[in-house]
UniProtKB/TrEMBL annotation:
InterPro entries: CILP1/CILP2, WxxW_domain. Residues 15-96, 104-184 form the WxxW domain. GO terms for cellular component: extracellular region. The lineage of its organism: Eukaryota, Metazoa, Chordata, Craniata, Vertebrata. This is WxxW domain-containing protein. Signal peptide: none annotated. Its main location: secreted. Transmembrane segments: none annotated.
Amino acid sequence: SGQPASQTGNIFQVTRWFDQDDPSRLGDIEMLPLILIRYPLQICPKPIAIEVATVGGTTVLPTENNFLVYDPTQGFACVNAQQIRRCQDYKVRFTCPMRFCQCTRWFDYDNPDGGGDSELLADLLNIYPGQICPNPIDIDVEPVSGIPSNKTFFYIVYNSTTGFECINSNQRGVCDDYKVRFTCPEEWCSSKCQY
């Protein structure tokens, strides 16, 4: 209907602004997977909208420049090589659906070894029967240490249907020890969660 979220029965939730990267020779990268790792529990894994602005507050529209990425499911990326002028410092915020609950605890069944760290849903369902819904709609991942990682990941498995896997051979360094928790459908949560 075009109404703001606050007037639509709280169907949607808008996150705070995130600025996890600073402009570099490459550009400015505000990608959703990195934001999810750095700011766990502050954003849903499948946003339905994205807003982009300079850190000074000027709104940036997808049609204004040739941005590499401007998508709610991926995030935002400005690459200097594709711009007339260097990329500025940007911030992003997302719109999330409200129809989810966060009611699983954190799980950490694997420890990093020579290969990496895995927290896969299929394994967790076997190890912790009844404690995770079989069809999560979201996943949160963070280092066991609780300290946000400043590493840049090149390839990881990171989704609600598979879980999380970081493989050392795909990284420039070694994977941290990670823990995961899942967002489940309301029907499952209503029978499991204490509100």
